[in-house]
Amino acid sequence: MPHVARILRAVADVTLSTRLLEAWIFDVDGVLLASPHERAWREALQGITDPDRLTTATYQAVVAGRSRLDGALAALVAMGVPNAEHAAPAYAEAKQRCLEHLIETEGVVAFPDALRLVRRLRAAGWPIAAASSSRNAESMMRAVVLDPRVTLFDAFPVSVCGRNLSHGKPDPEIFLLAAAELGVDRTRCIVVEDAPAGIAAALAGGMATLGVARVDDADGLRAAGAERVVASLDEVIIPKRATSTTHGPAA
């Protein structure tokens, strides 16, 4: 019911506004960019199984936000593909080839609401970081113009995209690294994510969470524990920024 939804949004806004927040950490694919990752994962299934079996719901639930190999294995297991563990490495490499081809031939598009939020945060002086397991994230961000002489990549003082990490989401390693490089305590960071695995990773790191339901998947993000879920980042009311007396490595 509409009035119930308004009440829930108001409660979530209060929750975020009363947390002491100092920095924002953004996932890239699905939050900042409408990149062709999902399509690449689907097209790479040719010769393995019917590509249409990888639905958007399955992609969001088990693939989005995970590292390439973890995502490949999770997708194959979810679809019941035999010998999934054996097939996963080849599937992951096929997906990467598809992705690089799609980026080269069709490019990537940024979500306008994401660009508006990044501009608002920069204008207000908030520290921001980009955090994605994708090795293509930084090159895609460089291709997007945010403002004259400023690319989307330039807008982020910290980027931990495509790093060689020991653990992928839902482990919080990538977000803890972002917080450390921002010089902000992890508990004072808010993570913007579009995938349940990313929300789980942020919560495991003790961070505030904002889910972006771009494919009508708000229920899945809430089930993962997102404190606030929006359909558009234009809905976000930026809370008052907290300030620390000291900055250092994230706890």
Task: Please give a structural write-up.
A 6-stranded parallel β-sheet has the order 7-4-1-8-9-10, sandwiched between helices. The chain has a two-stranded antiparallel ribbon with strand order 2-3. Strands 5-6 form a two-stranded antiparallel sheet. α2 (37-43) crosses α5 (84-106). The chain has 2 domains: 19-34 and 109-235, 3-Layer(aba) Sandwich (Rossmann fold); 37-106. The termini are far apart. It contains 10 helices and 10 strands. β5 and β6 (150-151) form a beta hairpin. The chain has helices spanning 2-18, 37-43, 56-63, 68-78, 84-106, 112-123, 137-142, 173-182, 196-204, 218-224; strands at residues 23-26, 33-34, 109-110, 128-130, 145-147, 150-151, 158-159, 189-193, 208-212, 228-230. The chain is an alpha/beta fold and 251 residues long. 44% of the residues lie in helices and 12% in strands.
Compute the number of helices: 10
Mean pLDDT across every amino acid position:
89
Annotation, overall tally of beta strands = 10
Radius of gyration: 18 Å
Number of domains: 2
User: What is the architecture of the largest domain at the second tier of CATH?
Assistant: 3-Layer(aba) Sandwich
What is the CATH topology of the largest domain? Answer: Rossmann fold
Q: N- to C-terminal separation?
A: 41 Å
> Are there runs of 5+ residues with pLDDT below 50, and where?
1-12, 245-251
- Side by side, the strands of the main sheet go 7-4-1-8-9-10
Strand percentage lies at 5-15%
CATH homologous superfamily name of the largest domain? HAD superfamily/HAD-like
Please summarize the sheet with the most strands. Answer: 6 strands, parallel
Overall structural class, as computed from helix and strand content, comes to: alpha/beta
Shape descriptor reads globular
